[in-house]
Structure formats: C-alpha cells, structure tokens
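re: ur question from earlier - yeah i can do the single chain one, its not a big deal. heres the input i used so u can compare w yours
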Amino acid sequence: MTTTPQNRRLTQRTMAFVLAGGRGSRLRELTDKRVKPAVYFGGKARIIDFALSNALNSGIRKIGVATQYKAHSLIRHIQRGWNNVLRAERGEFLDIMPASQRMGEENWYRGTADAVTQNIDIIDSYEVDYIIILAGDHIYKMDYEVMIREHCDSGADVTIGCLTVPREEASAFGVMAVDAEGRITDFLEKPKNPPGTPEDPDKALASMGIYVFAWPYLRELLLKDAEDASSSHDFGNDLIPRIVAAGKARAHRFDISCVRDPGAPAYWKDVGTVDAFWQANIDLTNFIPDLNLWDRDWPIWTYAEMTPPAKFIHDEDGRRGSAVSSMVSGGCIISGTEVRNSLLFTQVHTNSYAVLDHAVVLPYVTVARHARLRRVVIDRGVTIPEGLIVGEDPEEDAKWFRVSEKGVTLITQDMLDRRAAALS
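and the output i got, formated as tokens:
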C-alpha cells in the first residue's frame, strides 16, 4: 500500500522547533561560556539532549534548533552528536537556526514567537502538518506522539503541555485554569493565588513551555503578530493568552505522556539555578533515581567521546581509589581519592588523599592531592590546587567562590586564578 501524508504517523507529519537561545543567567558562571541548553548534565549529556532525544524517540525526524546567546558550544555539540543521527536522504533534518537578521534590521530574535516567525520559509520547506514548540533547557522524558494525538483529536487551536504541581509551588510558573474537559479557561503568569485543578484544589497546572499547533494555523498567527507593534512577539506573553481568550486552548497533562518506570513519579526539572542543577545531578546517584538514564527503550542520545573505562588505583588506608553511591564517567582516573555521593563527568582525574563528597564535577577537571571538596559544582577544565578545602567554612568559601542560597559552592578556573593571585 502506498503511504500518503494522511496515513503516516502524526510524528512523521510534525516538526519539532526547539528554543535554545536563552542565556540561563541564574546558573551564574556556568553560562559565562555556554548557553543553558549546552550545559552538561548527567555525566555525559547536555541539557538540550533531552528535548532532542524525546523528539527522536517519539518518531519526529524534522527538527529545528533556534540559537542565540553564546551558541558555539551548543552548535558544536549538535554537529558532533546529532548530524549523523538524522538522514537527509530519508527526508530527515536537524537544522540549526541562529538569529541572523533574516527579517528587517534586528540582530536577535525579539521573542520566542519571533524565533519561529523568522524561520517560516525553512519550516515551509519541511512540508509538515503540525509543529511542536519545545524549550531546550529542561530535563524530562516525554512521548510527544501522545500529546500531538490529543491535540488532533480535541480540535483545539493550541495544546499546552502542563505539569501537575502543588498549588503552593505554582506561583513560580505560568498557570492554567481548566474546566473538566481540559479546556483552558485562563492563563495566569506567576499568580500569587494559583487556581487549583478541577479534581484537586491543592494542585495546579503549570505550563511546561511546550505547544502543539497545526502549522497552517500557527503560520497565519505568526504573520499577524509580526505586524503588531505592541506585541513582544512571545508565545507566553502574546500568542497563548489570545488563543486562551478565544476559548480554543487545551491543557495536556504531562502525567499522561511522561516516559518513566512503573510506579515512578512524573519527572521534570528546570535546572536553572546552581542549587537545582547540583541537586538534579546528585539525585542520579540515588539507589533508584526518579530519572532513569539506563532505559534502553527511551535512551538519551548525545555526543559521546571515545574514552577508556574509568580506572581506580591505590589501595592503602587513607589513599584508596574508591567511589561509593556515585557515577563515574569514561576516561576518569580516581587515584587514591575517596569519592562519595558524587557525579564525575568525562576525563576527571583525581589524585591521592583527596576527598569528593556530594560533588558534581564537569569534564576535564583535575583534582590535586589533599583537596577536600564537599557540596560543590566544578566547571569544565578546572585544576583544583593541592590542599584546597571547600565546603567546610562557608565564610571562607564565599571570599573566593560562588556560594548558593543552599550552600552549594560553584568553582571556576577564573575564581581559582583570582584566589591564587590574591594569596601570592
């Protein structure tokens, strides 16, 4: 039988448009050299790999990634890890879409909706029926086919992915008020008194920043918005409230489409602060983590360097290479170091008599002898000097490093260099 566009899977008729231009300033120095979606996560991946992997695993083979702020690291990662996954000869694409003065004289995308508007011609060339707008800076596993199917069956103009959160936590989000049929009756940005859900007044529906549209409908909407001088050209501020007001917006519950183990919670994290980033990585070292990175049926694809296995050397009292309740990536050498409840990325090398406790250590870090590091995030490429102690004296740590509200210390090479210069 000949396959026509009408009888293909919905995801085969859908494009994923990933918004990956946000700076992520709340991650502080972690985003000084890279955009938030390019920040490392989970031992070997980048944050954007979750949205891209969800699209690929859902069956979407046409993907665009809009980049803007300090995009080199992100673009290089996509080129190395993703360009060989999708095959153009089969009608599969992953296009990088940097802000490039494609319309008028603006250097940058003016808002999330404008990022799509400036690439209408590219999206047209994909010949898709539907488009799913994704944020490239969240950690979660989701089958987008389920959400797209719900959108088609409901006849809504837009379907919005929503998290079910405790009502007292919902003030940090855009919140949806819905009726019993799932139709969105109001959209409130960070309300002081969030509305509850129809079935539970103590729960609220928070926007995930995921939107499904029929492409012809969204295309017309974007062109009208581009001509509106009063618009900020943003989905959350402009387009979505207009559709909600017209009564044609639907809420999709993440609980329905979340990919998880039986009995596990619906996992979604915005790792947008140093505390949240540290905690989400450390959580992966739990006996049974809520986020399963070992799931071979829904893998998180990424660029993987060719590295040797991790190595642990020395076996003497006080000088034993060991790791307990930790994740240690390829290329690591744990030489006479005690590692506990920590996550070490690729090619981390530690030396004798050092201690790492609840440490998130990004790639290519070297830890010298006798260093003791507790509740830290160490940026890529840092060389920890001999005898450095962090995590035992918050006042001393704060003189040289970034100490978060919850007592996590962020260490970068620039901070260490300034400390060395001051102490010399």
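The radius of gyration is 23 Å. not sure if urs matches, ping me
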